[in-house]
Amino acid sequence: MGNSNDFDAFVQEEQERLRQEDETREASNPLWGANSIATAKTAEAGRGEASKVVTDIISHAGTSDKVSLHHENVLPIDGLHCHVQTCVKHWQEAFQCPREYLVASVLAVASAAIGNSVRVKCGPYSNSVQLWCVLVGRSGLNKSAPVKEILSPLRAVQEEYKHKHKEMRNSTPKGETPPPMRRVLMSDSTPEARAMILRDNPAGVLNFRDELRAFFSDIGRYNKSGEASDLLSIFNNYTIDVARKNAGNVYVTEPFMSMLGGMQPDVLERTFNTDTFMYDGLVQRFLFAYPDNPKVPYPSGKEISNVDRAAWGECVDNMMRLRKLETKAIIRLGDEAATTYRDYCARCVELQNDCSDDYTSAIYSKAEIYVLRLAGVVQCMSNAWDKDYECKYKSGQTLIAGEAMDYAVRCMEYFEATALRVRDKLKGLDTRQQMTSPELLRELCRRFDVKSQSMLAQTLNLSPPYISQVLNGKK
Description:
This protein has a 5-stranded parallel beta sheet with strand order 5-6-9-4-10, with helices on both faces. The chain is of the alpha/beta class. The chain has 19 helices and 13 strands. Helix 1 (4-28) crosses helix 3 (50-61) and helix 14 packs antiparallel against helix 16.
């Protein structure tokens, strides 16, 4: 920064970027919240003079508060069915948790409820609606309690399966083996046990672990048995053939396993920074709900209403009825959805061609698949309240609406951003960490090669001695 013009240009560019992101997010989702100081101050200033905004930010932050020039990345809810939106809003009010955890959990549970009963057809490609979701956040952010609430309809179904299996065991003649217990949920398992569960439950399951690190650690432990390769096949619904010691092979056709669980940010690098995850394409197959700078919440004292529980339970139960269809339902893209999808794919292709590394390219490659899956889940959730929705699936009349695809694209843009954030963290390039005011000043001076400390102090309306102390590392 040879003079104040360079600094002013930097500030103006930063404000313009925030303004454009603000307008885009407001247009796509009026419910988004602005938590970062920079975003809030920009909005309050009415897009005022850039230097005044940054000066206000630094003055507000003091010498110890954290400052971030990053715009908040929020997972939208406006494309969900209105009943589901209401549930999410009430859950967030009660649990005071980041909305991303709720939306990602809703999508994962819905995908498991639908299971293997639906295929999203687009040209020569056919996709299941499997979703692999990871809720990233430090301890205390209230990941577990909301997920428990959202999982409750599936847990109720699993309890029913458990009760029926107990009755079958009691009625099975001595010496005969009772049929395996049906499942919609699974957790701890070896690769062999998991393959058997998937074989015995062709409609599909949700693999849920409150903390997913144990699951990922198992992948490394069993990697010599080909578990990583099997997981890649499961993601694509390809047949897997798992060898069991002294018991023959387990052959699973079109396996379906959605995943959901939590992980702390500091564990990400220790878990995913291996060749198996980084370079075999596994980590790029996960959707990370990774809130920007969340705060540990205060208790709200609010309860979950029975009305919300009943509405969400009805939605899940209705989606699970699709499992009773004799053949898999095929849903295709409507004209508007097809146009939106083509535009999104064109953008992903351009980004892949511009990528200098395979890891990042794989993020956008998987995004083209995931946006179809998300659109399928959202459409099925919307259809769950239609009285004749089963008949529509049977007749092949179900189409993905333009609104569902538009929402899926916006969700996927959120997951793209978090995937890049995870990539940067794994590669030691995480730029999302907030800076103190002195750190921010030193970074500005480093980036623009400040020659005049007095001019910088004048521009920011700070005292020259303070600037000197900051740049000499005394603050």
